Amino acid sequence: MADQIVLQFSTSTALASELIRRLCHSPFSHVDIMLADGNLLGASDQGARGRVVQGNPRGVAIRPPDYQEFGIRRRLIINTPVAQGIVDAAMLEIGKPFDNSASREFLSDEIVRDWRKPRQSGDLLATKAAELRQLDEQSARAYRADAVE
Q1: From CA 128, how far away is CA 116, in angstroms rounded?
Q2: Angle, to 10 degrees, between the axis of helix 124-131 and the axis of helix 83-91?
Q3: Is residue 143 helix, strand or coil?
Q4: Which pTM does this prediction carry?
Q5: In a structure prediction context, what are the per-residue pLDDT tens digits for the chain, which is 149 residues long?
C-alpha cells in the first residue's frame, strides 16, 4: 500500500449519521484512512468509551475496522507516489480533539471557514492531502471503488 491511499467512506446506524447525510445530501457521513494493518485513522467523536487502538476516542484516533456498527462502507483507492507521506502527516494529528465547530458553522448562514486553513481534527484528510498537493486531478488517479461486505 506504499503507493496508494485507501479511503473508507461510511455511514453508521446512529441518528447523527442520518442527520449528516441528509444535511449534506450525501450517501456517506464519514471518511477514514485505511491503514496497511486494516485499522482506520480518522476524526470522530465516539464518546469517552469509544473503541480506539491509539489516540483520542473523542477526536483523531486509530480505530479497529469494526469500531462502530456501520450501515454502508465503500473504499476508494487512490494511486499516488506520496501516499505514505499523506498517512504519515495524518498520523501526526492523533490525539487531537474532534472539532464540533465545523458542524455548527455548516448549519449557520455565514461561511466563515476555509478548509485549507485547518483548525482541528475535522479538517484532517483534506488538509493533509492538500498540503502534499495530491488530490488534484493531475497528480492522483482514483482507479477503483470497492464495496465492503
Answers
A1: 9
A2: 130
A3: strand
A4: 0.73
A5: 578 999 999 998 888 888 888 887 888 888 899 999 999 999 888 888 889 999 999 989 999 999 988 999 999 998 988 888 889 988 998 998 887 766 666 666 665 655 555 554 445 555 555 555 544 444 444 433 444 44
- ∠ CA 27-30-33, rounded to 5°: 125
Q: Which residues contact 12 (CB under 8 A, 6 or more apart)?
A: 29, 30, 68, 69, 70, 71
Residue 45 C-alpha cell reads as: 467523536
The amino acid that residue 27 corresponds to is: P
49 near 68, Cβ under 8 Å? Answer: no
User: Residue 85 — φ and ψ, nearest 5°?
Assistant: -65, -40
DSSP-assigned letter for residue 19: H
Residue 132, amino acid:
L
